[in-house]
Amino acid sequence: MLQGLIESIRERTAAQMEKPVPSHMNVFNCFGGISLLLILLQLVTGVVMLFYFIPEPDKALLSIEAMSNEVRGGWLLRDGHRWGSTILLAFVFSHMVAVFYFKAYQSPRQLTWTSGVVQMTIVFLLVTTGILLPWDWRAYWAYALWMDYIATWPLIGDYLKEAALGTFTLNRVFYTHVLFLPLLLGGFLLFHFRMVRKYGIKEPL
What we know:
The protein is an all-alpha fold.
Protein backbone atom coordinates (compact mmCIF):
# COMPACT_ATOMS: atom_id res chain seq x y z
CA MET A 1 0.00 0.00 0.00
CA LEU A 2 2.79 2.41 0.94
CA GLN A 3 4.73 1.49 -2.19
CA GLY A 4 1.66 2.20 -4.30
CA LEU A 5 1.26 5.62 -2.69
CA ILE A 6 4.92 6.44 -3.32
CA GLU A 7 4.63 5.38 -6.96
CA SER A 8 1.49 7.47 -7.38
CA ILE A 9 3.24 10.58 -6.03
CA ARG A 10 6.35 9.86 -8.12
CA GLU A 11 4.23 9.51 -11.26
CA ARG A 12 2.55 12.85 -10.60
CA THR A 13 5.82 14.66 -9.87
CA ALA A 14 7.87 13.31 -12.79
CA ALA A 15 9.33 16.14 -14.85
CA GLN A 16 8.04 16.89 -18.32
CA MET A 17 10.29 19.31 -20.16
CA GLU A 18 8.15 20.59 -23.05
CA LYS A 19 4.63 21.91 -22.60
CA PRO A 20 3.03 24.23 -25.21
CA VAL A 21 0.75 27.08 -24.16
CA PRO A 22 -2.84 25.81 -24.63
CA SER A 23 -5.12 27.62 -27.06
CA HIS A 24 -7.94 27.90 -24.52
CA MET A 25 -6.06 30.35 -22.25
CA ASN A 26 -8.19 33.31 -21.07
CA VAL A 27 -8.12 36.09 -18.49
CA PHE A 28 -9.06 33.71 -15.66
CA ASN A 29 -5.87 31.73 -16.32
CA CYS A 30 -3.79 34.87 -15.71
CA PHE A 31 -4.56 35.17 -11.99
CA GLY A 32 -1.78 32.73 -11.09
CA GLY A 33 0.83 34.60 -13.14
CA ILE A 34 -0.27 37.95 -11.71
CA SER A 35 0.01 36.46 -8.22
CA LEU A 36 3.58 35.38 -8.97
CA LEU A 37 4.45 38.89 -10.19
CA LEU A 38 2.99 40.39 -7.01
CA ILE A 39 4.97 37.93 -4.87
CA LEU A 40 8.18 39.03 -6.61
CA LEU A 41 7.30 42.70 -6.03
CA GLN A 42 6.63 41.96 -2.37
CA LEU A 43 10.00 40.24 -2.16
CA VAL A 44 11.85 43.21 -3.68
CA THR A 45 10.13 45.86 -1.55
CA GLY A 46 10.42 43.70 1.57
CA VAL A 47 14.17 43.18 1.11
CA VAL A 48 14.74 46.93 0.77
CA MET A 49 12.63 47.62 3.88
CA LEU A 50 14.87 45.26 5.86
CA PHE A 51 17.58 47.95 5.80
CA TYR A 52 15.38 50.36 7.75
CA PHE A 53 13.02 48.33 9.94
CA ILE A 54 13.90 47.62 13.59
CA PRO A 55 11.90 44.66 15.04
CA GLU A 56 11.62 45.99 18.58
CA PRO A 57 8.33 47.07 20.19
CA ASP A 58 9.51 50.59 21.07
CA LYS A 59 11.36 51.18 17.78
CA ALA A 60 9.32 49.39 15.11
CA LEU A 61 6.85 52.17 14.35
CA LEU A 62 9.49 54.88 14.68
CA SER A 63 11.73 53.09 12.17
CA ILE A 64 8.84 52.84 9.68
CA GLU A 65 7.97 56.52 10.14
CA ALA A 66 11.62 57.45 9.64
CA MET A 67 11.79 55.39 6.45
CA SER A 68 8.55 56.92 5.15
CA ASN A 69 9.45 60.53 5.97
CA GLU A 70 13.23 60.73 5.69
CA VAL A 71 14.20 58.22 2.99
CA ARG A 72 13.65 59.33 -0.60
CA GLY A 73 10.79 57.27 -1.95
CA GLY A 74 10.38 55.51 1.39
CA TRP A 75 6.66 56.28 1.59
CA LEU A 76 6.14 54.71 -1.83
CA LEU A 77 8.14 51.65 -0.80
CA ARG A 78 6.12 51.15 2.37
CA ASP A 79 2.72 51.78 0.77
CA GLY A 80 3.63 49.57 -2.17
CA HIS A 81 4.49 46.71 0.16
CA ARG A 82 1.46 47.27 2.39
CA TRP A 83 -1.15 47.57 -0.36
CA GLY A 84 0.62 44.99 -2.47
CA SER A 85 0.00 42.38 0.21
CA THR A 86 -3.74 43.04 0.12
CA ILE A 87 -3.85 42.92 -3.68
CA LEU A 88 -1.78 39.72 -3.65
CA LEU A 89 -4.18 38.00 -1.27
CA ALA A 90 -7.11 39.06 -3.47
CA PHE A 91 -5.50 37.63 -6.62
CA VAL A 92 -4.47 34.38 -4.94
CA PHE A 93 -8.02 33.92 -3.66
CA SER A 94 -9.43 34.74 -7.12
CA HIS A 95 -7.05 32.21 -8.65
CA MET A 96 -8.27 29.52 -6.25
CA VAL A 97 -11.92 30.35 -6.99
CA ALA A 98 -11.29 30.13 -10.75
CA VAL A 99 -9.48 26.79 -10.37
CA PHE A 100 -12.34 25.45 -8.27
CA TYR A 101 -14.96 26.70 -10.74
CA PHE A 102 -13.25 25.02 -13.69
CA LYS A 103 -12.81 21.84 -11.58
CA ALA A 104 -9.07 21.89 -12.24
CA TYR A 105 -8.52 20.27 -8.84
CA GLN A 106 -9.66 16.90 -10.16
CA SER A 107 -7.39 14.04 -11.19
CA PRO A 108 -4.58 14.17 -12.15
CA ARG A 109 -4.12 17.67 -10.68
CA GLN A 110 -4.76 16.89 -7.00
CA LEU A 111 -1.22 17.80 -5.94
CA THR A 112 -1.36 21.05 -7.95
CA TRP A 113 -4.55 22.03 -6.12
CA THR A 114 -3.28 20.98 -2.70
CA SER A 115 -0.02 22.93 -3.07
CA GLY A 116 -2.07 25.95 -4.19
CA VAL A 117 -4.26 25.78 -1.09
CA VAL A 118 -1.13 25.63 1.09
CA GLN A 119 0.31 28.63 -0.73
CA MET A 120 -2.86 30.66 -0.15
CA THR A 121 -2.62 29.83 3.56
CA ILE A 122 1.03 30.95 3.63
CA VAL A 123 0.16 34.21 1.86
CA PHE A 124 -2.57 34.81 4.45
CA LEU A 125 -0.07 34.21 7.26
CA LEU A 126 2.38 36.60 5.58
CA VAL A 127 -0.30 39.28 5.50
CA THR A 128 -1.29 38.74 9.15
CA THR A 129 2.29 38.72 10.43
CA GLY A 130 3.04 41.81 8.35
CA ILE A 131 0.16 43.66 10.00
CA LEU A 132 1.77 43.05 13.41
CA LEU A 133 5.26 44.30 12.55
CA PRO A 134 4.69 48.08 12.95
CA TRP A 135 3.32 47.30 16.43
CA ASP A 136 0.98 50.30 16.40
CA TRP A 137 -2.59 50.48 17.69
CA ARG A 138 -3.86 48.66 14.58
CA ALA A 139 -1.42 45.79 15.10
CA TYR A 140 -2.17 45.53 18.82
CA TRP A 141 -5.94 45.34 18.39
CA ALA A 142 -5.68 43.04 15.39
CA TYR A 143 -3.67 40.60 17.50
CA ALA A 144 -6.13 40.92 20.38
CA LEU A 145 -9.08 40.20 18.09
CA TRP A 146 -7.33 37.19 16.54
CA MET A 147 -6.61 35.76 19.96
CA ASP A 148 -10.23 36.21 21.02
CA TYR A 149 -11.36 34.50 17.83
CA ILE A 150 -8.95 31.58 18.26
CA ALA A 151 -10.23 31.12 21.81
CA THR A 152 -13.70 30.35 20.39
CA TRP A 153 -12.40 27.26 18.55
CA PRO A 154 -13.68 24.08 20.17
CA LEU A 155 -11.27 21.85 22.14
CA ILE A 156 -7.97 23.50 21.09
CA GLY A 157 -8.92 27.20 21.09
CA ASP A 158 -7.93 28.08 24.64
CA TYR A 159 -4.72 26.07 24.41
CA LEU A 160 -3.68 27.78 21.17
CA LYS A 161 -4.47 31.20 22.61
CA GLU A 162 -2.38 30.59 25.72
CA ALA A 163 0.49 29.21 23.64
CA ALA A 164 0.39 32.20 21.28
CA LEU A 165 0.27 34.74 24.10
CA GLY A 166 2.99 32.95 26.04
CA THR A 167 5.47 32.76 23.17
CA PHE A 168 4.67 36.01 21.32
CA THR A 169 7.52 38.43 20.68
CA LEU A 170 7.78 40.95 17.87
CA ASN A 171 11.21 39.58 17.01
CA ARG A 172 9.78 36.08 16.43
CA VAL A 173 7.00 37.48 14.27
CA PHE A 174 9.63 39.37 12.28
CA TYR A 175 11.72 36.29 11.50
CA THR A 176 8.60 34.29 10.75
CA HIS A 177 7.55 36.97 8.27
CA VAL A 178 10.89 37.58 6.54
CA LEU A 179 12.52 34.15 6.70
CA PHE A 180 10.43 31.11 7.58
CA LEU A 181 7.23 31.85 5.62
CA PRO A 182 9.00 33.15 2.46
CA LEU A 183 11.22 30.04 2.31
CA LEU A 184 8.18 27.82 2.82
CA LEU A 185 6.27 29.69 0.11
CA GLY A 186 9.21 29.44 -2.28
CA GLY A 187 9.39 25.67 -1.84
CA PHE A 188 5.69 25.20 -2.52
CA LEU A 189 5.87 27.56 -5.50
CA LEU A 190 8.57 25.45 -7.13
CA PHE A 191 6.55 22.29 -6.54
CA HIS A 192 3.39 23.99 -7.83
CA PHE A 193 5.12 25.11 -11.06
CA ARG A 194 6.43 21.62 -11.61
CA MET A 195 2.93 20.22 -11.33
CA VAL A 196 1.52 22.87 -13.68
CA ARG A 197 4.25 22.13 -16.20
CA LYS A 198 3.58 18.42 -16.03
CA TYR A 199 -0.23 18.44 -16.25
CA GLY A 200 -0.86 21.77 -17.94
CA ILE A 201 -3.95 23.94 -17.56
CA LYS A 202 -7.37 22.34 -17.60
CA GLU A 203 -9.61 23.18 -20.52
CA PRO A 204 -12.85 25.10 -19.82
CA LEU A 205 -15.99 23.11 -19.02
